[in-house]
Specification:
Layout: H1 4-18, E1 23-28, H2 39-45, E2 52-56, E3 59-63, E4 68-72, E5 78-83, E6 92-98, E7 102-107, E8 114-118, H3 126-129, H4 142-149, H5 156-161, H6 171-181, H7 194-213, E9 254-258, E10 261-265
Antiparallel strand pairs: 1-6, 2-3, 3-4, 4-8, 5-7, 6-7, 9-10
Helix pairs in contact: 1-7, 6-7
The chain binds a DNA duplex (16 and 16 nucleotides) through loops.
DNA sequence: ACGAAGCCCTGCAAGC
DNA sequence: TGCTTGCAGGGCTTCG
C-alpha cells in the first residue's frame, strides 16, 4: 500500500511529465471510488495547464488555474504515465489525458483511493485543513509530539499514526520506526519519556527519508510514476516478519493486532 | 472531547 | 477442486 514515501516517489516520478502540460480531457470510467469522483473534475480541469504537482500528507495535488485535483491512492492505488491510446485494463478508473499524447492513469483495484476537485484554496479543503504537520518538516519535532502525548492513554503506535497529529506515518513505517526506537507499540503514549520521544521523532524521520531515498517501498500493487515496479521489503526489520528472528537479538518477532491493524515488534528489543 | 470500533473494496491465501 | 472465510489496510464516520 502506498505510504508517504511511495506517494512522494509517485509525485517526483510524474512531475516532469505533467508540469506545464495542458489537460485535453479527463476520462472517468468508474466514478465510484472512496468518494464519488465529482463531475467538476472533468468539466473544470479539461483545457487547463498543470502548474504544479505537490503533496500534502498522502494526497497528491495537481494545480491548475481554476482549481486543484486531489488524488489519494488509498491502499491499492497507483498512478502511471502511459500513452493515452494504450488500452485501459481492469481497475483503470481515471485518465487525465494530456495534450502531449500521454496520460496520467489511476489504477486502483480496491477503490479506497479518491480523486477530488477543489476550486478554492486547496489547503482549506475539509480533508486537508485539519491534517497534522508533515513528518519531515521542522514543525514535527520533539516538543510538538511530547507535549501532545501527555495524559494520553492511547497506544503510542496509534498515537503516531493519527494523521491529525502528524501525516504520513502509515502502518508499515510506524512498526519500523518503533522498532528502530526500541519502543513497544502498545505502550500508552503518555507513559513515554521525553528522552524516548526524542529518539522516536528521529527514527520516524529516518525511516521515511530512507524509504524515499530508495525510491519508495512497495507491495505488489505499487508501480512508480514512470511505470517501473518499485522495490521493497528487503529493508523491513519487523513488518510482516512474525515468528522470524529479530536481526538485532534473535528473539522471535511478535505479531499482534492493535486498533485492527497488524502490529509487529521484537519482545526483547522493544519495551 | 476523546477513544474505540465500523466501514468501504478486491485479491489472495488458507482452510475445509 | 471448488467453495467459504479471513485478512490486508487509510482514514473518515459513527458510536459509546
Amino acid at each position: 500500500m502506498p505510504e508517504l514515501p511511495e506517494v512522494e516517489t509517485t509525485r517526483a516520478g510524474i512531475e516532469p511529465h505533467v508540469i506545464g502540460q495542458r489537460v485535453s480531457r479527463v476520462i472517468v470510467r468508474n466514478a465510484q471510488l472512496r468518494y464519488p469522483v465529482p463531475d467538476a473534475l472533468a468539466r473544470q480541469m479539461s483545457g487547463q495547464s498543470i502548474e504544479a504537482v505537490s503533496r500534502r500528507g498522502k494526497y497528491l495535488l495537481l494545480k491548475t488555474a481554476p482549481g486543484t485535483a486531489m488524488i489519494h491512492l488509498g491502499m491499492s492505488g497507483s498512478l502511471r504515465m502511459v500513452d493515452a491510446d494504450l488500452a485501459p485494463e481492469k481497475h483503470d478508473h481515471v485518465d487525465i489525458v494530456l495534450a502531449s499524447g500521454k496520460c496520467l492513469r489511476l489504477h486502483d483495484p480496491r477503490r479506497f483511493g479518491s480523486v477530488l476537485w477543489e476550486a478554492g484554496d486547496v489547503t482549506q479543503h475539509k480533508l486537508l485543513a485539519s491534517l497534522g504537520p508533515e513528518p519531515l518538516s521542522d514543525e514535527f519535532d520533539l516538543d510538538y509530539l511530547f507535549r501532545d502525548s501527555r495524559k494520553k492513554t492511547q497506544a503510542v503506535k496509534l498515537f503516531v499514526m493519527d494523521s491529525h497529529r502528524v501525516v504520513g506515518v502509515g502502518n508499515i513505517y510506524a512498526n519500523e520506526a518503533l522498532f528502530m526506537a526500541g519502543i513497544r507499540p502498545t505502550v500508552p503514549a503518555g507513559k513515554i519519556s521525553r528522552k524516548r520521544y526524542q529518539v522516536l521523532v528521529r527514527c520516524i524521520k529516518q525511516v521515511l527519508i530512507a524509504a524515499i531515498e530508495q525510491g519508495g517501498t512497495t507491495l505488489k500493487d505499487f508501480v512508480d510514476g514512470s511505470g517501473k515496479p518499485g522495490y521493497f521489503q528487503q529493508k523491513l526489520k519487523v513488518y510482516g516478519r512474525a515468528g522470524e528472528p529479530c536481526e538485532a537479538c534473535g528473539a522471535a518477532i511478535k505479531h499482534i493486532k492493535l486498533g485492527q491493524r497488524a502490529t509487529y515488534y521484537c519482545p526483547s528489543c522493544q519495551s
